Amino acid sequence: MNETALFKLSYGVYICTSWDEGKPVGCVANSAMQITSSPATVAVSINKNNYTHKCIEDCGHFALTVLAEDSDPKLIGTFGFRTSKEYDKFASAPYTVRGKLPVLDGGMAYLSCKVVSKMETATHTVFLGEVEDCDHLRAGKPMTYAYYHDVLKGKTSANAPTTVAAAPEKKQKVYVCEICGYEFTGDFDSLPGDWVCPICGVGKEHFSAK
Amino acid sequence: MNETALFKLSYGVYICTSWDEGKPVGCVANSAMQITSSPATVAVSINKNNYTHKCIEDCGHFALTVLAEDSDPKLIGTFGFRTSKEYDKFASAPYTVRGKLPVLDGGMAYLSCKVVSKMETATHTVFLGEVEDCDHLRAGKPMTYAYYHDVLKGKTSANAPTTVAAAPEKKQKVYVCEICGYEFTGDFDSLPGDWVCPICGVGKEHFSAK
Asked: Which of A126, A193, B65, B195 is positioned for an S-S bond with B15, CB 3.0–4.6 A?
């Protein structure tokens, strides 16, 4: 048994949102799929340790914002590597209430759902949601997890301050973001003080040498 | 509510297989996703009208063969547009028993699963399977549904007998496969008698002018 075969399943990249007593909450979700067409239902798998899980349980609704390939990758950092319990993810991520739920303005489509069933597993709940509202926000190509992993990380890395990184007289060290795992290669000390992680947006103080 | 927003969810393309009293059965599945990592479980959604659904219910096991971008598109036609009840899909699709289940040789990876839970909906059952065996079959890029829909159909169409289709003196008519919906553009009558649909493999008798 070679569990890396599981990496060959294909996924999109979504922000799954809900309400926490009137405040928007959300997290990144990859595991989402349509189940039935009439009525339209979608299933999403959310880790029970995730604060958004509790909020979906409490309010009985969730929305999926579909990210596009050109959506700001900071959305993934903000919603994927922090907790809504301690951090206001929406402070840097504009949203609009659509179909009663918070939808990220940076997405390309959304589905707003009412929980109609669920399946429990040891670590995750698979929520089945009946789609109450959905629409496109703009044109775009849906971001796949493979694109995020294989292409976007590469692109982001290439867009990092390479003029500094490429300075021949400096040794190329690697600095790792403790929040999202992004690796910066180059002269970290020469980066400006307000430089932030291109993936999750945290400051230099969250990086440490590898 | 614009239900075409649902088209923006991302999927892979899999052949979901099982046993029917010792005979292999299978169908195309797009809706599959990993749910937990320890133990590894995956969920797959199968239409209740599908003969493979009955077989998974009866034998309690299913396998997913992950198709690659360069897997033979006829696999999708054979497994997606016919029924295992009346047609031996495996007659033209070599398979090997791996982890106790039939796995298509034309795939790039497989997951062999034991059903441990399920969630019922009006038209589909979401089977939760604990992965008992999985491995890669070969290198490749997993086929996504978007690739099948947007790219492969184009490529297949381009590989159709275009020398005939492009003959300037003939009017370009469109002929539609009644099995899978593939559209052939060109001089249909001049195709050889043993020509078959490049997607699902049926003969010319299953085509009609659009």
From this structure: B65
Rounded Cα–Cα distance for residues A101 and A55 (Å): 12
**Separation between Cα atoms, residue B126 and residue B42, nearest integer Å:** 10
User: Which one of A3, A9, A133 would you mutate to disrupt binding with B, by most B Cβ within 10 Å of its Cβ?
Assistant: A9
Interface list for A 168-197 with B (CB within 8 A): none
Token look-up 């009558």 returns B189
Nearest-10 Cα torsion for A63, A99, B6, A129: 50
Q: Which of B8, B34, B39 sits opposite A66 (nearest CB)?
A: B8
Q: In total, how many domains does chain A have?
A: 2
pLDDT tens-digit map of B84-109: 778 889 998 999 999 999 999 999 99
Note the pTM of the prediction, 2 decimals.
0.78
Which residue range forms the structural domain that includes residue B178?
Answer: 160-209
Would you say residue B65 lies in a domain?
yes
Domain contains B166: yes
For chain A, give the percent of residues with pLDDT over 90: 51
Same structural domain, A51 and A130:
yes
Q: What contacts A67, CB < 8 A, 6 or more positions away?
A: A12, A13, A14, A15, A75, A76, A106, A107, A108, A142, A143
**Helix runs in chain B, H state only:** 51-59, 74-80, 145-146, 153-159, 162-165
